Amino acid sequence: MKDGSIIKVSGPLILAKGLKGTKIYDLVYVGNAKLFGEVVEIRGSIYSIQVYEETEGTQPGELVYSTNEPFMAELGPGLIGSIFDGIQRPLPALRRESGDFMLKGSKLSPLDREKKYDFCPLVKIDDKVIPGDILGTVKESNLISHKIMVPFGINGTVVEISAVEATIDTTIVKIDSGTEVFSISMCQKWPIRQPRRVSKKMRPQEPLVTGQRVIDMFFPVVKGGTACVPGPFGSGKTVVQHQLAKWSDADIIVYIGCGERGNEMADVLLELPELKDPKSGESLMERTILIANTSNMPVAAREASISTGITIAEYYRDMGYSVAVMADSTSRWAEAMREMSGRLQEMPGDEGFPSYLGSRLAAFYERSGNVICIGSDKRKGSISIIGAVSPPGGDLSEPVTQETLRVVKVFWGLDDKLAYQRHFPAINWITSYSLYHDIVDEYAAINVSPNWKEIRRKAMELLKREADLEELIRFVGVDTLSDNDRLIMEVSRMIREDFLRQNAFDSIDTYTSLEKEHLILDLIIYYFHKANEALKSNVELGRIFQIPSRENIARSELIPEDRLFQFPDIKIEIKNEINELIS
Amino acid sequence: MFVEDINGVAYGELTEIILESGETRHGTVIEVGEGLALVQVFEGTRGISTENVKVKFLAKGVEIGVAPDIVGRIFNGSGELIDGGPPLIPKKRLNIHGHPINPYARDYPDEFIQTGISAIDGMNPLVRGQKLPIFSGSGLPHSALAAQIARQAKVFKSNDGFAVVFAAIGITFDEADYFISEFKKTGAIERAVLFINLASDPSIERLSIPRMALTVAEYLAFELDMHVLVIMSDMSNYCEALKEISAARKEVPGRRGYPGYLYTDLSTIYERAGRIKGKRGSITQIPILTMPEDDKTHPIPDLTGYITEGQIILDRGFNSAEIYPPIDVLPSLSRLKDKGIGEGKTREDHADLLNQLYYAYARGKNAKEIAVVIGESALSPEDILFVNFSDRFENEFICQGRDVNRTVEDSLNLGWKLLSELPKKELKRVRPEYIEKYYQKVIK
Ligand SMILES: Nc1ncnc2c1ncn2[C@@H]1O[C@H](COP(=O)(O)OP(=O)(O)OP(=O)(O)O)[C@@H](O)[C@H]1O
Ligand SMILES: [Mg+2]
Predict the structure, then answer these.
(1) Same domain, A494 and A541
(2) How many domains does chain A have?
(3) A313, A373 contact by CB (below 8 A)
(4) Domain match, A274 and A173 both
(5) What is the DSSP-derived secondary structure letter of residue A35?
(6) Is A267 part of a structural domain of the chain?
(7) What is the pLDDT of residue B156?
(8) CATH no. for residue A8?
(9) How deeply is A276 buried, as exposed, middle or buried, from its count of CB atoms within 10 A (0-12, 13-18, 19+)?
(10) Domain end marker among A38, A70, A102
C-alpha cells in the first residue's frame, strides 16, 4: 500500500495515480485538506476516487493517503439520539467545531469517546462464545438496552471480564480463541457496503403498526417488510415518512434524509424529543437515529448515506430489535449514483442512470427482513424499509420507480389530485397495494377482532364501487342513480372523510391504534348494513342520511385512545335510530 | 476553454483572461488535470483566439466584497457596482458558493409573515426563512405579485432590521425597471441590494448572480441580524444557462436536455434560505420562474418544487378573467404553514378553516366540471351550493386589487363569510367549537 498523488479534479471525482495496493472501495484521504474519499474504480494505474466533501481548492499534485480499509461505520453505544451526515460525522459536534456552516476536512469521531457507560456482563469466565453472542448490556437510552456482541469472526473462551464504567474504547472482555487472545471493547466497525450476516431469513410474521389508518387497514406493512411511497412533489411522502418515524411500533427508527431539505431535518429534531412513545411514554428520540445529508451537501456523501443508515439498522437488528428504516428519498440516492456514474463516463442506461441501478436498489431493499440473528440464543430481529420515491413530473414509468416496484411488497401511490383537495394522507386507495394482507389479517383476527378482514374487504369493495359510479356520473349525472347506489356513494364518502383522511398535525388524529381503526370502520360498515335494512323497508334515503348519530360517526376519529368504550354506545344509537325509521 | 502549461491550479479557482485587445474576462476552473485546466468563461468565449491570450489564475474562488453599507447598492452580473455611487470598501470578501448550513444548526421557520394577500395568508401562509417560489407563465403578473409581497410583508411583534435582495436573472429591461421603480416608489430601495443581469447580458453570468445575491443575503442575515427577503427572477433563465453550458461540455443530458445534476445544482441555491439557531436574522426566498408551456411537470418547475417549501402557482385562466392575483390555490402549497399559524400567531381556527376552504373549493370546482358536461340540472342541491361557493371564493376571496392589503384577520373572516353559505353539517373539517364561534357570526 502506497500513497499516491492527484492527477485530475472534476467536481466530486478525483483521479489519482501511485496508489499501488489500494483496493476498490478503500477509504482514502485526498489532498492537503485530507478530504474523505472512496476508490470507486481502478483502471490500470489510474484510481478514480469519489470524494465525500467539496473539492474546491484542490490541485493536481496534492497527495492521496491510503488507509487500506474500506469505509466503515462505527457501531457502539451512543448511536441512539444522534444525528449524522452521510459519512457518519456527528452534526452537533461538527457544529461545535466549525460553526453553523459545513466546512470541509473535518474529521470527527462518530461516537463520543470520552463518555463512560456502565457495562453489565452477561457472560462468565470460561464461557464459550461465538460471533453474535451477547457479552453484556449497556443502558443506552431510557428505551434501549444496548447489547455488546461478540464481533464477527471471533470464537473462543471468555478469559477476562471487567465490569466497570468504561469508555467505548476500553477493553471489557478478553476472548481466547486458542491461538490468539482478542480484546473486545464496546465499539466495533463494519464496512457499510457489505450486509451484516444473519443466521436465517424468515417470513415476516407481525404487522408494523404505523397508527396511520389507511396504511394499517388497507395497505399494511410488516416487521421485516418493504414499502415504497412514490408521488410528485408536495403529495405527502415526507409527512408519511415522518409519521412512521414517530408512530410505528418498531423498537428502533433509523431515518435517512437523503438529498432532501434541511428544514425537514430540523423539524424532526425539534419534534421527536417532545413526542412520547404511545406505549412506554418515553421521548421518541430515545429510539431514533438520524442521518441527514441534505440536497446541498456533497453528493458522494449522499450516495453513502443510505449504506451508512442501513448498516446501523443491521447492527441493532443483530441485537434482536425490530428496526424501521425510512429513506427519503431513494430517488436522490439514485441521482447521486447517476452523477458519479456520469463523471466516471460509464455507459448510461435509461434516463442516464447507470445500468446497475436496479441491482443497487434491490440490494438495498434486500437488507430488510425478519431474521434469526447470529449468536447462540437464536434471537429474532427485523428490519423494515420504507423508501420514498420522487419521480420526475410524477411519472411512475421512470426507472427508479419501476426498479423499486420490482422489489418492494407494498406500494403507497400518492395522488396529487387528493393532495390538492387536502385529502391527506393522499394515498390513492384504488392503485395502492400491499402483499402482506394475509400476515396482517391473521394477526388482527387474533389480536384485534375476528371480523377485521371482513370489514376491510367490505369497505374496499364500497370504495371501488364508488370509483365506478363516479365515472358513470361524469356521463349521466346523479339523477340516474338508484337509491342503493346513492347509499354506496354516501357510505364511501364516509369512509374517505371519516376514516381514510387523517390529519398528521392534530394531536389526537395523528395516531390511531389498531383497535380504534377497527372500531371506526366497523361503525361505518355497521351503518351501511343498517341503512340497507332500512332501504329494504322503504325508508326514504334522505331520512337515513340524516340520523343524528351520523355526526358521532364523523367525529369518532377524535375519540381519545383511552375512551374507546364510547364506540359501542354510538353503535347502539345507530341501531335505535334506524330501527325507529323502519318501524 | 482549455488552458495548457499550467501549474498549481486548483479546482474552482477564479481566473482572469486578458485578450489581445486588452479586454479582461473572468472564468473559473471546472476541471483540472496535470498541466491542463478547463476554464468556464463568464462573459463567454466569443472572440477569444488561441493565441496571444493570457490567463491569470487568481488562487481563490469567485468572491464578492461585503460591508454593512452594501445595502442600497446596485451590481451587475459580474459583481461590479453600476449605480454610479462611491466604491464599496469591503469589510470582507466571501466565496459566492458559500457552505451548506449544518442541518443541526437550523432553526425551524415558524414566524408568520402577513403578505396582505388572502390566497397566500389565508390558504398558503408564508413564514420567515421559507423558500416559496412563484410558478408563473410568460405574460402573467408575477412581478406585480412579488413586488406587492415585498411592499406589504409584515411580521407581527418584530422590529428587527429588514432588507430586500433582488436578483434579476436574464429578464428584460422593462421587468427589471419595474422592480427598481417599485422599490423607489416605496422607499424600499434604501433597504435593497440589487443584482442585475438583463436578457442582453452574458448568459453565463446568470450562473453566479443568484449566488452573489445569496452570499450578500447570508451576510446581512447571519452577520448583521437582518431579515432578508430574496427575490430572484427568472430562475428559468438560470436553468437555461446551465443547460447551455452542460451541452457545450457534451455532458450526457438528463430529462429534456437539462443536465442530470440540475436538482443538486438548484438545491445549492434554494437551500440557502432559512434560519439558524441563536441568530436573529433570516433568509426568506421568493424565486420566480416561468413554466415553459405552462407545464408544471417541466424539469424546471418540477425540480424546483421538489426542493422548495411549497409553491404559488399562477393561472392563465384567472388572469384572463381578470382575477388578480391569479393564484391557483389548489396546486399551490405552503409546507411550512403548520407551525406558523394558529393561536398566538394568526388565529386558533386558521388550520381548520384553511382545510375546510380547500375541501369546499375543490368540491365545488369538481361539481362545476361535471355540470359543464351534463348540465347543472344533474347536480344535487348540495353540489349546487358548493358550485356557488367556489365562484364566490374565486371572485371575492382570491381576487383582490393590486393595492389591497388585507389583514390576516380580514382574510379569515372573509373565508367564514363564504363558508356560512354552506350547510353547517357539511363543515366536517372544522372543530365544533369554531363553528359555534364563527359560523354565520362574523358578518361584515
Ligand atoms: N397526513 C397529512 N396531514 C396533514 N397535512 C399533510 C399530510 N400529508 C401531507 N400534508 C401536507 O402536504 C404538504 C406536503 O407534504 P410533503 O412535504 O410530505 O410532500 P413530499 O411528497 O415529501 O414532497 P417532496 O417530494 O417535494 O419532498 C405538507 O407540508 C403538509 O402541509
Ligand atoms: Mg419530501
Answers:
(1) yes
(2) 4
(3) no
(4) no
(5) E
(6) yes
(7) 72
(8) 2.40.30.20
(9) exposed
(10) A70
pLDDT value at position B126?
95
Q: Indicate whether A312 and A419 sit together in one domain.
A: yes
Top mutation candidate among B271, B329, B335 for ligand 1, by most atoms within 8 Å of CB: B335
- Centre of ligand 2 to C-alpha A238, Å, is 4
- Cα dihedral across residues A154, A156, A160, A165: positive or negative: positive
d(CA A228, CA A92): 30
Q: Say if ligand 1 is within 6 A of residue A241 CB.
A: no
Position A475 scores a pLDDT of 80
pLDDT digits (tens, 9 = 90+) for A82-118: 999 999 999 999 999 989 998 877 778 999 999 999 9
| B359 phi/psi in degrees, rounded to 5 | -60, -50
- Beta-bridge partner residues of B38: B2, B31
Find out whether A387 and A210 touch, Cβ atoms under 8 Å.
Answer: no
Q: In the predicted model, is pLDDT for residue A214 greater than 60? A: yes
| Nearest-by-Cβ selection for B370 from A56, A473, A503 | A473
* Domain match, A205 and A352 both: yes
State pLDDT tens for residues B276-313.
999 999 999 999 999 999 999 999 999 999 999 999 99
Residue A400 to chain B, least CA–CA distance (Å): 14
pLDDT of residue B253: 81
Chain B residue at shortest CA distance from A237 = B306
Query: Residues 352..411 of A with a Cβ closer than 8 Å to B: which?
Result: 352, 390, 392-395
Per the CB < 8 A criterion, the answer to whether B317 and B390 are in contact is no
| A278 belongs to a structural domain | yes
Minimum-distance CB partner of B299 among A60, A292, A392: A392
CATH number at residue A457: 1.10.1140.10
pLDDT digits (tens, 9 = 90+) for A141-188: 989 999 999 999 999 999 999 877 899 999 999 999 999 999 999 999
Q: What is the pLDDT of residues B87-120, one digit of tens each?
A: 999 999 999 999 999 999 999 999 999 999 999 9
Q: Is residue A96 part of a domain?
A: no
3-state secondary structure of B239: helix
* pLDDT attached to residue B442: 62
Q: What ipTM does this complex have?
A: 0.92
User: Is B444's pLDDT higher than 60?
Assistant: no
- Clarify whether residues A425 and A480 are in a common domain: no
In degrees and rounded to multiples of 5, residue A388 shows phi and psi of -85, 145
Domain ranges, residue A310: 200-434
Q: Which of B219, B222, B229, B245 is nearest to B183 (CA)?
A: B229
DSSP tag of B338: G
Residue of A215, A238, A256 to mutate, ligand 1, most atoms within 8 A of C-beta: A238
Q: Locate cell 413526542: which residue?
A: A275
